[in-house]
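Standup notes
- DV: blocked on the single-chain target, sequence here:
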Amino acid sequence: MDDAGETSQPPLTIRISRAASGGGADAWPAVAEEPVSPTARLMDSFYIVVTMGLGSPLDLPVFRAGIETQLARYPRFRSIQVTKDGKPRWVRAPALNLDDHIIVVPSRPDMVSSSDPDRAVEDYVASLSTAPMDRSRPLWEFHFLDFPTSDAMSTAVFRVHHSLGDGMSLLTILMASTRSAADPSRLPAMPAPPARSGDIYARPRPPRTAGVLALIAWLWSFVVLAWHTVVDVTLFVATIAFVRDPHTLFKRDNGGGDGELPRRKRFVNRSLSLGDVKFLKEALNCAKKMVDRKKSSLEVVFTHMLGEVIIKTFGVKAAGVIFRRMISHTTISFSNMIGPAEQVEFYGHQVVSIAPSVYGPPDALTVHYQSYSNTIKVILAVDEEQFPDHGQLLDDFTESLRIIKDGL
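- DV (later): unblocked, structure below
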């Protein structure tokens, strides 16, 4: 473990990883190689941060043993990216030094006795958004803050490069390492998957006995599908080319163009009742309308094909420019992920909260929703310069939800 020495400065400090030397390939005997996918190459500057509140003080030997026997066995978690013949590749190593990936933040007296330990954790996680990772090692880390906050006895922060996987796949790996808090011998229960089969845009043909009108309605559904697809793909291409959201308080002032130095992100969250959110969704019927509209379009299929054509024709660099241009022309990015339906234990520590987020995209504001047991976390990744009053933004969000619920 790398334990930084104590400092008299109030802000928490973190270990800055050493710069890569010699390209990293010689220090890692290659036992397997595979090319880095185009999507992973597009995510070169993106990182995922998952903050987990733990229900007990840190038991480092137990946590370390769990990481070593479970998480570290996944190929991506023992691999680095090296450039070979001008192309990045994953190179795997037969051994992994966990001391390079476990950072225990020393608990200074001012942290433990602080009137706002939540802010101390928040400051530390925010500092990760401008701290580089050592690319001569696998791009993941666990940071541990072993002092109590308002809702946890200790905190674990998992930072990982986005090229190792998307948020859902990485969260699935984390959840595969957990166990039910009620019965540690089994995996945690997950919410039931949606009851459907086949493609979401499938249009089953009605039986002949349904009549002519049913057949006409079935044929018309394909016309609507085609029209929605044309509209959505056209809007997608226009957004890349020239259409951009009008400037508002939520939009980054300079658009986050290429070549700009990374700006510090702050990650804040609030817990909401999952029951209240479901009640509002059903009462307003807004979610169903949005889902039905998305099902009535092949935009995802066509944009995926378009992305592959661009990468194969113009290369990853050109695709990266287009990708960042698309994000910078919009205002807010949203993401939602489904978590366990019950309380879980993570390497012998009960998890009281899960708050994933991301930094690297040029957005000034990114919103994540994460369900866990009977709660749902709203997590904001905010540009500190753009949103100095980010706490008020979250309070307004929560108050708006309460006003809507009381009015129904």
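- Follow-up: Residues 182 and 333 are 35 Å apart (CA to CA).
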